[in-house]
Amino acid sequence: MDATGAWTRFVLRSTSAAWVGLAVTMFALYSAWSRVFLGTSPAIFLVAATALAGSTVFVLWHNGLLALAALLVVMLMLRDTPRTSALGSWYAWPTWCSTGLIAALVLWGFRNVLGRQSAFPAAKLDD
């Protein structure tokens, strides 16, 4: 458990209760967020809030805080950036910028995961 779940660990005194507390907190935040952006239909925003809270806790638990930060940056960019299919028009720059930033984040993460390994090792390609 890292610093993100430390306050729930302090309050709830057990690791599993801390993860449940973090999930409940994230569900509350995402349900308020989903109500604003997805409308007032309870079925839609409850499903969205459950999926987002579950993915947040899953990514933090299995991959760590850096992966969670990348997930949240991509989610905010996809939520807040206006998109258009008219990519040649003058108002398409937010679409290009957000796509470029997400692609750069993906490539940076891919390079960091590989480290000094090659993405296409020659020995594997010869088989």
Overall form: flat
The chain-level structural class is mainly alpha
How many helices in DSSP terms? 6
- DSSP strand tally: 0
Mean pLDDT: 78
Poorly predicted spans = none
Rg measurement, Å? 19 Å
Beginning-to-end CA distance, first to last residue: 42 Å
User: In the residues, how many domains can be counted?
Assistant: 2
Helix amount: over 70%
Could you give the order of the helices and strands? Answer: HHHHHH
Percent in strands: under 5%
Major sheet summary line = none
Secondary-structure map with pairings?
Elements: H1 6-12, H2 15-38, H3 42-63, H4 65-80, H5 93-114, H6 122-126
Written description of the protein model:
This protein has 127 residues and is mainly α. The chain folds into two domains: 1-80, no CATH class; 85-127. Helices cover 76% and strands 0% of the residues. The protein is built from six helices and no strands. The chain has helices at residues 6-12, 15-38, 42-63, 65-80, 93-114, 122-126. Helix 1 (6-12) crosses helix 2, helix 2 crosses helix 3 (42-63) and helix 3 runs antiparallel to helix 4. The N and C termini lie far apart (42 Å). The mean pLDDT is 78.
Tag the structure with descriptive keywords:
mainly alpha; flat
Give a quick summary of the entry.
With 127 residues, the chain is an all-alpha fold. It has helices at residues 6-12, 15-38, 42-63, 65-80, 93-114, 122-126. The chain has two domains: 1-80, no CATH class; 85-127.
